[in-house]
Amino acid sequence: MATQNSSLLFGSVLLVLFFLCSLEDTFGTAQYHNVQLSSLLPSSTCSPSTKGPNKKTSLKVVHKHGPCSQTKQEEPNAPTHIDILLQDQSRVNSIHSRLSSTGGGGDVKKLDSTTLPAKSGSSIGSGNYIVVVGLGTPRNDLSLIFDTGSDLTWTQCEPCARSCYKQKEPILDPSKSTTYSNITCTNSLCSRLSSATGNTPKCAATTSTCIYGIQYGDSSFSIGYVAKETLTLPPNGVVPNYLFGCGQDNQGLFGGAAGLLGLGRNAISFVQQTALKYNKIFSYCLPATASSTGYLSFGGGASNSVKYTSFSDISQGSSFYGIEIVGITVGGNKLSIPSSVFSSSGSIIDSGTVITRLTPGAYGPLRTAFRRAMSKYPAVSGLSILDTCYDLSGYKSFEIPKISFLFGGGVSVDLASSGIVYAVSAKQVCLGFAANEDAGDVTIFGNVQQKTLEIVYDVGGGRVGFGSAGCH
Ligand SMILES: *[C@@H]1O[C@H](CO)[C@@H](O)[C@H](O)[C@H]1NC(C)=O
After folding, report:
1. Residue 29 CB coordination number (10 Å)
2. Which atom of ligand 1 is least distant from the CA of 207?
3. Where would one find the signal peptide in this protein (predicted)?
């Protein structure tokens, strides 16, 4: 009986939604999203997105801590929202110092030392979304965090000479693979590690194997041998001699993932290593909640609706993808923010930063306009870096103003409702943006704002594209 009632209710909700949508299409004037509270909160079971690109090489993307993640059961103490936002601030701090420092890496200590140099600016946080790739022959399937803000791909490796944290899948054992080979210190690939990791590589005393070290903003790190191995992207993409880090000393908040897939802009990233195969093009869609899935795919073939804006040069030789943000609209009205506010800080797009960071001169007007539009809902206290929150537990559905980002070249991108608010709980639904402390700190377009968008990185073409409803 109850089920019948709820499916009836569900049916009529759908009808009403359909009606609203068609109204919106006809007049094109709706400046609000009508949001079901349930659409913002993850459920306890995974319901994979059925949408996806029609491409050969496409991996399923899941959130590190959601019910769709295979790594989840390895992590009984999943982080709270406060933990996630604190870790996010560590990543942002290290991005800021990395982009403002004049370069010059630290030194990788010996494998038997416990820490990497905590040189400010030499590290970035590690991100939140996971894909499964194959490594070795025979192939081992490994869950890796994918990160557009760093270049080196690495995974924990046997014999874990110093330390491996607990991971979901068996740890890669090079001695069982027929395609593994070490890189020596005299190989020119070894010296490329400096710019990719921010640390000068070291040399193993007797065997002369190249040793990398990389540290992330949340004080996670990996140290190990630089090696080549066959990488397999399901279902049938094979990349022989893929340069990666075979981690012998690994610690940190990787949530059961085996390591990291580096999709940054620099020399040894996945994008650069597979340039001939995938033409330096990849795209992804991040799901609306942790109980759905998105995708990460390689090679061309984006939807026709994708609109492109040029990458900007953010910092010579950095891993980050610079973009040009020129304005923001809230509820159809362009905020009056001088364009110098955006141009003086510069902007990047990052898959690993959670909350978009705006300069104070842009965040202030955004918050004011959002608060005005939300004035009928009860305000509650903020959480960590989020300062504009509402108790929406009394509402089945509610309205939030539409927000669009304007990029260089006249490209306007409408954010999904899941890209506007960050739902801590029904009692605390917050504006999903935060201000940088310093007006000169780089603006970061983070992964909450990217949710459900089809985002195409055409690295060879020097442009990034945005399409709507790439996944749900
Ligand atoms: C790779 O180098 C390490 C460190 O020198 C060594 O222990 C390991 O046996 C080497 N592996 C292969 C397959 O040569």
Report:
1. 8
2. 5
3. 1-23
Low-confidence winner among 109-123, 168-182, 280-294, 447-461 (lowest mean pLDDT): 109-123
Residue 147, both tokens: 């990160």
- Give the right CATH number for 304-467 from 3.40.190.10, 2.30.140.10, 2.40.70.10, 3.40.50.300: 2.40.70.10
Q: Considering the chain, what is the average pLDDT of its residues? A: 85
- The answer to whether the CB of 209 is under 6 A from ligand 1 is yes
In the chain, CATH 2.40.70.10 covers 55-296, 304-467
User: 204 CA distance to ligand 1 centroid (A)?
Assistant: 9
d(CA 318, CA 288): 29
Residue closest via CA to ligand 1's atom 6 equals: 207
* Minimum CA distance residue for ligand 1 atom 11: 182
User: What DSSP element (H or E) covers 443?
Assistant: strand 443-445
Residue with tokens 């290593």: 273
Contact 193, 152 (CB under 8 A): yes
The residue from 218, 350, 441, 458 that is catalytic is 350
Considering only the top CATH level, what class is 55-296? mainly beta
Q: Number of H helices and number of E strands within the chain?
A: 8, 32
Task: Give yes or no for residue 207 CB within 6 A of ligand 1.
Answer: yes
- Global pTM reads 0.87
Q: Does the active-site annotation cover 147?
A: yes
Strands 237-251 and 129-135: unpaired
Which residues on neighbouring strands pair with residue 221, listed in sequence order?
A: 215, 251
Ligand 1 atom with the shortest distance to the CA of 174: 13
Q: Distance from the CA of 139 to the center of ligand 1, in angstroms?
A: 19
